[in-house]
Amino acid sequence: MPYIEHGPTDPHTFKTHLVKSKRILALCGAGLSASSGLATFRGAGGLWRTHDAMSLATPQAFVKDPSLVWQFYSARRQAAFSAKPNAAHLALAALSVKNKDFITVTQNVDGLSPRAGHPPEQLYPVHGSLSTIKCTSIFCSYTEHNNFDMALTPALAPSRTPADVDAQPPTIPVLDLPHCPKCGIGMMRPGVVWFNETLPNDLLESIDDWIDQGPIDLCLVIGTTGQVWPAAGYIGICKGKGAKVAVINMEIDDDPHLGGVNTADWLFKGDCAQILPDILE
Ligand code: BV8
Ligand code: ZN
């Protein structure tokens, strides 16, 4: 089956459908923030120094080498806090202000969508946030919102990581990694959902409540490989509720299975920061 069933790049038929659409779900991935200068997980940007980003986003990696994983997340915190929302973030925020039946499910943890003015009640950050840190002690539930400290401890200061990306980052003693100010025992961890961790149930239930409210008119699949579950599953769910699917991506594989769905009604190839403001205006 050809990947595209309908006119793949015709913005006019898309815009005709958009104006008639009320219930819209956008599924966003790392490509949404690429134009803000933030690295993606796969492709050329998929590395952090000499490490595969995906292999660092696991509880096992954190147990094995908390120093390396904290340096990975500290670098991403610094990059995210220094980055600015791009035109794609702003276009989605504007659509959500205009249309209260539009929701964004974002896999990104960089906080750029809230900073773009996306109403929080229409934004579901299902993989958590870099600006949240939480205690790892099972006896303590301390969680902190911290979107300002470029370094949570002196050892994580940007200056301490070698500029040469091929150089192995230093091993930071565990005592010099962030620890819980409340219980004083647990090491702190990034408040993100790692692989093999469950997504926040409250968010999933709220998204399901929105989905159950009736047919869905449009699903926007923006800057994501659509390979990470269960988030990727929303594409097929929307299609099953009658939605047409528009893919906005820099690369288009011959036969991608975005969330198990291998047909899209529109396919817009390019930088979402260029495309979204145009097709959503
Ligand atoms: C779970 C937070 C249950 C951390 C992340 C079903 C089938 C197969 C596997 C599974 C399944 N169910 C569960 C799994 C396992 C796993 C999974 O999906 N594995 C995949 C890889 C095979 N899922 C999980 O583990 C999830 N948990 O299911 O728990 C459970 C638990 C315990 C016991 C029993 C059951 C948790 C998944 C969440 C992981 N956390 N992020 C962090 O950020 O550090 S995932 C992380 O990687 C991102 O959040 C994102 O979701 C993912 C990367 O994907 P993308 O966003 O698509 O980014 P990527 O770089 O890959 O692609 C960028 C895209 O943008 C590309 O397409 C590129 O072309 C495009 N692009 C680039 N520039 C631009 C652009 N497009 C437009 N414009 C541009 N300028
Ligand atoms: Zn604690």
From TrEMBL:
Catalytic residues identified in the record: H127
Ligand binding (Zn(2+)): C135, C140, C180, C183
Presence of keyword Oxidoreductase: no
GO cellular component: nucleus
A GO MF term: histone deacetylase activity, NAD-dependent
Deacetylase sirtuin-type domain: residues covered: 4-281
Matches recorded under SUPFAM superfamilies: DHS-like NAD/FAD-binding domain (SSF52467)
The entry's keywords: Metal-binding, NAD, Transferase, Zinc
InterPro entries according to UniProt: DHS-like_NAD/FAD-binding_dom, NAD-dep_sirtuin_deacylases, Sirtuin, Sirtuin_cat_small_dom_sf, Ssirtuin_cat_dom
Matching Pfam families: SIR2
Family: Belongs to the sirtuin family. Class I subfamily.
Protein name: Deacetylase sirtuin-type domain-containing protein
Natural source organism: Arthrobotrys flagrans (Nematode-trapping fungus)
Upper lineage: Eukaryota, Fungi, Dikarya, Ascomycota, Pezizomycotina
